[in-house]
């Protein structure tokens, strides 16, 4: 059992590594965030990158420190979110870390919100940094990507606009007055018009009118440099950098602190990908993508998805943002512009009682475009992964044919036997077509004629039963038969095929090593080893086939053992025959429920109190 668990773990690890290799090849040359996941699907690390392709690949190449090595050893999958700038990636990284608390992230696990700059609504207003927005008639600007940037901007504004700095007015002027950063309302009268002027200029600056201030700072910096006042020039230069850092436009956070669901979609080759960006309290915290085939008109099918989504997810945000419908076709040319969008938004609003918008410009339009861009990337990734997998599988099948001296190997039928000490022997067959599993063709076999753990005779019986039916029903013959084992299994299969059925189908065997892993390929009678490289695509295909048929056989064997154990428990009770056993199982559903039943529960089956008590006592005694 431990050996089987180890093998399954190794298989899952190999599949995860292959999946990561495929996805690494498809990473875009764009900024964004990436989320590393462990084997349970839990997010263990969130990071950001200017170029996703370079940053994510770096985890799987080269040497790392101890922490990164531990992180990489746990990664079994990853996903990413594309953004339009590195600043967006920074803010999104912060939101995602606060949402998921990944174990390998440390710096941003606090529960702080983004900082804002506030102009207070007082007789003598002042500037302050805050992380809370309240309805106090103050003016809030932001949010800003980090507290340092907000502080730098406030310091700059303090130099340019000398509002008061004290929480309560002192009795006399303080140092700020003497260095020109306060107009000292504590000692000198200040006209309201002066306050209005400064508040208006600060508002214009923080709302995007900082170019005038930057031009003035640039002029002063150049004058200071010409006058050889290098310290002053450096200070002015740093102020210019601070302005650029904090005033960069970003879409990841909105100042109104609303809960929003933002939808975008993309279509290609009959498939649609819908991306939903979840914005909570004005912050983008999560992304979800769904890919599915669509059959009608793309926007109608997209709206059907949205409708079904909210039918299944009753928790509604305050606002829903949707992309606008594509240009109307000829049949709709007489409709007024925008009528379709108005109809959609009105219908959804009426049904959901939630504000629904299709923004045309501004930040809301930008986040809808971001959702659409992520949908396009996800859909492209899906098709490129499929194409790479199909190309490799087909090429592996073609190359395998060359190794075996065959014209082609398109259909492979593989067999595996399963039993434990000869009990409940079964066999299973899987089919691979062009290197891909064809699950509707899988077959299960209960071994009928073989007593005890005889693998060769089991192989004979199953091969005989399978290909007698193929001949009788004129089914498609395989290009290659694969058996689990070496010379003995190959000889048994060929003997039945050629001498009993007159079929000449190539048979090869997959031999395992001491660790129960696929080790080599054997073919022919007398069997010879085919020198396939263990890191080749052909060997990987055979390994997948062997793992799949083994999994299928083991699953079937467990089912049969479970049924056998149930039957043996009930059959050992006096007064229970096959008919009554089936009746009990049909009525109660399982042995566990029979054991938990009361005597009265047996009356509908015409089982008396005495026998019912014996059944319950026997089952409970066996499990104690």
TrEMBL record:
It is found in: Cytoplasm. Pfam families: GIY-YIG, HHH_5, UVR, UvrC_RNaseH, UvrC_RNaseH_dom. Keywords: Cytoplasm, DNA damage, DNA excision, DNA repair, Excision nuclease, SOS response. Residues 211-246 form the UVR domain. One of its GO terms (molecular function) is DNA binding. SUPFAM superfamilies: C-terminal UvrC-binding domain of UvrB, GIY-YIG endonuclease, RuvA domain 2-like. Residues 29-106 form the GIY-YIG domain. Signal peptide: none annotated. Residues 262-497 form the UvrC family homology region profile domain. CDD domains: GIY-YIG_UvrC_Cho (cd10434). PROSITE patterns: GIY_YIG, UVR, UVRC. One of its GO terms (cellular component) is cytoplasm. SMART domains: GIYc. One of its GO terms (biological process) is nucleotide-excision repair. Belongs to the UvrC family. This is UvrABC system protein C. It comes from Paenibacillus arenilitoris.
